[in-house]
Amino acid sequence: MHSPVVTTGRDLRLDLFRGLALWLIFLDHIPSNAVSWVTIRNYGFSDATEIFIFISGYTAAFVYGKEMRERGFTVAGARILRRAWQIYVAHVFLFAIYMAEISYVATSFENPLYAEEMNALEFLKQPDVTIIQALLLKFKPANMDVLPLYIVLLILFPAALWLLLRAPTVALGASVLLYAVMWQFNLNLPAYPEGVWYFNPFAWQLLFVFGAWCALGGATRLGPLLHSRVTIWAAIAYLLFAFCITMTWYFPRLAYFVPHWLEWLIYPIDKTNLDVLRFAHFLALAALTVRFVPRTWPMLNSRIFYPAILCGQHSLEIFCLGVFLAFAAHFAMVEISGAVWMQVVISVLGILIMSATAGLMTWYKRVEERKPGSRPKRSDADLAGGEA
Amino acid sequence: MRAPLAAIAVVLALSGSALAQQQPRACAVPDYLLFSDYQLKHAYDAVKQQRRLNIAVVGTGSSALAGPDGPRSAYPARLEAALNQKLSGVAVKVVTLVRSRQTAEDLAKGMDKLLLDEKPDLVIWQTGTIDAIRRLDPDMFKLALDEGVDRLHKGRADVVLMNMQYSPRTESMITLGPYADTMRVVAQQQEVPLFDRLGIMRYWSDHGAFDLYAAGKDNVLAQRVHDCIGRLIASLIIDAGRLQEFAVKAGQ
Fold first, then answer.
1. Which residue of A has its CA nearest to B129?
2. Fewest Cβ atoms closer than 10 Å to its Cβ: which of A369, B46, B80, B136?
3. Which residues of chain A neighbour B161 with C-beta distances below 8 Å?
């Protein structure tokens, strides 16, 4: 049954692109997945994580900004923190599933070729430390770095939002300043057993705050800039440049054409600290998207995009489901087959499950809202492009 | 991710044959996986002037195999055999310095001593696995690589970097991506060849040459993989060292 879930004032593009980003993150999380060659990270500097964090910042500001204006700092701040708590619980739940998969793999695997790689399982020998460090968000297994970042961003968001509502330019400036200070002094949070957070919150906050700033009027202010021809051509040129550079990673022969000074200038393109080149790549993508996909684009109501929009509207649940499905996919590849056909089947199946789950959640919500005597509908939290 | 790109690679291939020649079929990989722009000058000089080639393999656990056959079957020994077979009248010696659980930083610190003790013309530096397992800061990893390569260059040795193994079963436990990227960048910036073990083994797995998902105590798979790795590094060294002129002609 296809029924548009549109309410007025809602930008379906946010749902659509967040949904697509969730699919891409899922595909990228399945190890050695041939299907992931379709994802954008193979054709430029940035990847779906940037889209996800930016839209999350945008929707968070949209939803909680309205709340903070209408009901004050305390209520909005409390709701943001409750959201952070929900995400923490989701993260711990995923960690339990991860431990189950890893423990199973550890006991069933022995191969002299990989004696060294088995060292990765050493943390299983001291579950006491490992689990506590995981609860402290210091121990984060592979593919489980995004939610801790999101939690930290939300914890700091009440203060950021307060400032964004009063002096948006100052808030954005402060965010840029923090980003610059982070680069200058190498700030990051410590991780366990060693090293630092894979997604440095001091760096990635820039994207989140920038998203929030756009939601609170920044996008309108950027309007003239976004529609100028210079911007469009600069964006296209930059995307082409990024594409060419990316190709040299896959075909070393092409690296010959990259001048040495350029290599020294651009490398390494750091994901942990949200390299400027990655941020710029995201901006270029966003500029072209806003320019060529208008808010009133008729396709936004088409059946083709409906599943992605649904997924984008339940982003936290679908994100977690995606992480779980990626573990399950890896498990299936180990136990059944790792062949390319299997990778295709798993990828398609995963996206179908994500879409069906999102559809089910929409159905639940509609049923609950119709129930007589149910609590009044919360402010647009679930509708402004999914939960924030 | 790279497998479908192989299709584009064929289109893009700037040179004729798609598969590295003279390899047993199972070992064969496309040219783009075994290619370097950068020359091994010290290795060339040693072969040309002294008819010798001293190679040191520095690395961690994945450069060795356990068991009584281990030292003979691991890729350093297979590399030595392959080079001695391919280069006529050249005394090729490969020494192995495997230190398990060492990070790139640990290994980089040992390079001066290595230069003194072994006087290698060429060092194959296998690293990255332990750094990825311990999730060390990629920036620090890069610093360590640069430092190690600089020391080796100062000691008049060529360098070939070798990245991690492709290990499908442990992929959801070890994030190799940032470390493999860093090694590629360092190789490019320092102008040293990178032996892309990760890409090569993934190619073998995707194309059914080896079943790298297999589990079991059996050593046969490990030995066959190491034999292929040894042969392919030999090809890379002959190619990057411009050593074809010393190679045994076919049929000789």
1. A117
2. A369
3. none
Q: Is there a domain that residue B43 lies in?
A: yes
Range of the domain at A18: 12-370
Query: Based on the structure, what is the number of domains in chain B?
Result: 1
Q: Which residues on A lie below 8 Å from B136 (Cβ)?
A: 194-195
- Look at residue B11 and tell me if it is in a domain: no
Residue A214 lies in a domain: yes
CATH number at residue B128: 3.40.50.1110
- Per CB-CB distance under 8 Å, the chain A contacts of B160 are none
Inside any domain, residue A51: yes
Q: Is the Cβ pair A250, B206 closer than 8 Å? A: no
Residue B38 lies in a domain: yes
What b/e sequence results for A71-94 when a residue is b if at least 16 CB atoms lie within 10 Å of its CB, and e otherwise? eeeeebbebbeebbeebbebbeeb
User: What does the radius of gyration of chain A's CA atoms come to, in whole angstroms?
Assistant: 21
Give the pLDDT confidence of B67-117 residue by residue, as tens digits: 888 999 999 999 999 999 999 899 999 999 999 999 999 999 999 999 999
Q: Is residue A137 part of a domain?
A: yes
Q: Is residue A384 situated within a structural domain?
A: no
Rounded (5°) CA angle B157-B160-B205: 165
User: Is residue B218 domain-resident?
Assistant: yes
Q: Mark yes or no for CB contact B188/A326 under 8 Å.
A: no
pLDDT value at position A375?
Answer: 55
Are B182 and A268 a contacting pair at CB < 8 A? yes
Structure tokens at A346: 């798993």
Q: Do A334 and B185 touch (CB under 8 A)?
A: no
B60: nearest CB among A116, A252, A268: A116
More confident position, A271 or A256: A271
Domain residues for B191? 24-240
Per-residue pLDDT at A9: 62
What tens digit of pLDDT does each residue of A87-108 get?
999 999 999 998 888 888 777 7
For the entire predicted model, the pTM comes to 0.88
Return the number of CB contacts < 8 Å for A and B: 179
Q: Is B114 on the interface with A (CB under 8 A)?
A: no
Listed residue (A17, A24, A19, A20) closest to A39, CA to CA: A24
Cis peptide before A376 (omega within 30 of 0): no
Record: contact B205-A37, CB cut-off 8 A: no
- The answer to whether B219 touches B69, Cβ cutoff 8 Å, is yes
Tell me if A326 and B172 make a contact (CB, 8 A cut-off): yes
